[in-house]
Design a protein that fits this description.
This protein is 37% helix and 15% strand. The chain is an alpha/beta fold. The chain has 3 domains: 62 residues; 345 residues, no CATH class; 74 residues, no CATH class. The strands form 5 sheets. Strands 7, 8, 9, 11, 12, 14, 15, 16 and 17 form a 9-stranded mixed sheet that branches. Strands 1-10 form a two-stranded parallel sheet. The chain starts with a helix and ends in a 9-residue tail after the last helix. Bound molecules: 2-acetamido-2-deoxy-beta-D-glucopyranose (NAG) (5 copies). It comes from Culter alburnus (Topmouth culter). One of its GO terms (biological process) is N-acetylglucosamine metabolic process. It holds the Pfam family Glyco_transf_17.
């Protein structure tokens, strides 16, 4: 009796403490936010979908309802959005009944898509690159001139000299499967490549922070070329602070249902030793963990499958990756020449960014020790396993790159966010790429950021002279972005171009 009496008292006391705490937090936040916040809508957007407890919802309602005349210290602002972030991650959507997202495995299967077809005349043509109407009339011609029965068997024979596939514009080679970005690349063996009977499987690994628009663009661009996307998210920013698992939330709430069957979710739940002092450690570690954890959960790997690692803002064009999937005879490691732009696709920078991004699974493990960060460095020839691997491959391995300085084979869109996203990137940036602009209050100011977007300027005060661009240009932006022009207009046209300053 006395016992239960006491526990009731304790419970009441706990209640009191809880209410007091809640009241305290309310008052503190009221003071802090009285003159603030209206403009940091990203964090609001990102956390609004969480199903808060009723009280917490009202509570955050208070947070967001003030209109701002000026900003408080942005660092304070972050601390509190951080507090909100905690609230957000307290209402984590549960893992689906069939297992934890970050513990699942992915089983690779051969892709049975009929990328190539046999024409009636017996030629093997890449379906998409071949002008089938022309092929029919062409076939009649061939039959007319051919007396013999050319009883070709099913083997894909590179030695075939008869060119029987009439190629569409943009496709080359006897089977019309070589895209322009490979045809005009520096691949030494490009005239000797041959279609495979069974496509390679392509594994695309990326780390994600808050680049969700570019992520949708990637998924749509590469949906039929890539077999599995390894996507790694951490509950730490590269700077070492806590962040909610936005991507996990969006997988579970249905945002990525169209591609979910190809995503393997990787969760990095710790921050590397030394990552605070030296941000490059944190930066590299993300790729190391992504590759090691991700690849250990992929089953059915074959030595000649393709491993492709990108940053979230590097989107390879689909045709080049499809070539790697469908053809034999290219060398490795493989780079990609990407169109470079800043804040959106409208501030195009000169030249291309050529990043070593792909190799076979065999090379990944034998030369790069299963670590994706080593692939991105250009020092493969000095790695201990390289000579042996090269010897076993029976060919000289020199790197080549899809595309060329004038044929874009992808897009590198830096800092391509709305102003709030740029703000968030600034405060999440690793502690190593100095100067770290996120450390300067004036550089985090939303009005300042808008000014940079308007002029194409950089945080160091420079304003490069970018050439004018036009969304109708070839390879201006990924197809999905262009196809949804209104939705992604902020990436396609300078949103502040008309604003006076
Ligand atoms: C999923 O969550 C995101 C981020 O909070 C939100 O923007 C989106 O509307 C949500 N989608 C659905 C279908 O609930
Ligand atoms: C041509 O091939 C068809 C079937 O492939 C066969 O029935 C026919 O007898 C062949 N004709 C000659 C002349 O070899
Ligand atoms: C990240 O997640 C791990 C595992 O759930 C947890 O132990 C750790 O405290 C989390 N870190 C942050 C900063 O939320
Ligand atoms: C290269 O391969 C050949 C056989 O293919 C072998 O005899 C030779 O020892 C190898 N050399 C090295 C350096 O691994
Ligand atoms: C500080 C700042 O950028 N304030 C802006 C907040 O947003 C409103 C409209 O949404 C602007 O009028 C303010 O200038």
């Amino acid at each position: 009796m006395g016992r239960s009496h006491m526990s009731v008292r304790i419970r009441i006391r706990r209640h009191k403490v809880f209410l007091l705490c809640l009241l305290g937090i309310c008052v503190i936040s009221f003071l802090h936010y009285y003159k603030a916040l209206h403009n940091i809508s990203l964090l609001q957007e990102l956390s609004s979908s969480s199903t808060h407890l009723k009280t917490l919802k009202m509570f955050s309602g208070i947070f967001w309802s003030f209109t701002a005349s000026d900003f408080p210290s942005q660092q304070d602002l972050y601390k509190h959005s951080y507090l909100k972030a905690r609230t957000y991650s307290n209402v984590i959507l549960p893992d689906p009944p069939d297992g934890k997202l970050h513990e699942r495995t992915f089983v690779l299967h051969d892709d049975s898509t009929p990328f190539f077809i046999h024409t009636k005349s017996g030629a093997l043509c890449f379906r998409e690159g071949t002008d089938m109407a022309a092929s029919t009339s062409h076939r009649r011609l061939l039959q007319h001139h051919k007396k013999k029965n050319s009883s070709k068997d099913d083997t894909i024979n590179a030695g075939e000299k008869v060119v029987q596939c009439p190629c569409r514009q943009g496709w080359h080679g006897p089977h019309c499967g070589i895209p322009t970005v490979v045809y005009h690349s520096n691949l030494p063996s490009k005239l000797k490549v041959t279609p495979r009977k069974v496509p390679r499987r392509v594994i695309n690994a990326i780390n994600i922070n808050h680049e969700f628009d570019l992520l949708h663009a990637r998924f749509h661009e590469l949906a039929d070329a890539v077999d599995v996307f390894l996507v790694c998210e951490s509950n730490f920013t590269a700077y070492g602070q806590s962040r909610p698992l936005y991507f996990r939330h969006m997988i579970l709430n249905g945002t990525f249902d169209y591609i979910k069957h190809k995503i393997l979710y990787i969760f990095l739940d710790h921050f590397p030793d030394g990552g605070h002092a030296d941000g490059w450690i944190a930066d590299d570690y993300l790729r190391t963990y992504l590759t090691k954890n991700g690849m250990s959960r992929v089953q059915g790997l074959k030595a000649d499958d393709v491993f492709l690692i990108d940053d979230a803002d590097e989107i390879p064009a689909r045709d080049g990756i499809l070539f790697l999937k469908l053809y034999d005879g290219w060398t490795e490691p493989v780079g990609i020449h990407m169109r470079k732009s800043l804040y959106g696709f409208y501030w195009r920078q000169f030249g291309t960014l050529n990043i070593l991004s792909a190799c076979t699974v065999d090379m990944l493990f034998k030369v790069y020790k299963g670590d994706g960060i080593l692939l991105r460095r250009r020092t493969y020839y000095s790695l201990s396993g390289f000579r042996e691997y090269e010897n076993s491959s029976g060919r000289i391995l020199i790197p080549w790159a899809i595309g060329s300085p004038i044929h874009y084979a992808g897009w590198h869109c830096s800092w391509c966010f709305k102003p709030e996203g740029i703000y968030y990137k600034l405060i999440s940036a690793q502690n190593g790429d100095f100067p770290r602009w996120g450390d300067y209050g004036e550089k985090r100011d939303i009005r300042y950021i808008k000014g940079l977007i308007r002029t194409g300027g950089w945080f160091d005060g420079s304003v490069p002279n970018y050439p004018p661009t036009d969304p109708k240009e070839h390879m201006y932006a990924p197809k999905y972005i262009l196809d949804n022009y209104k939705k992604y207009q902020y990436l396609l046209e300078n949103p502040y171009a008309k604003e006076k300053h």
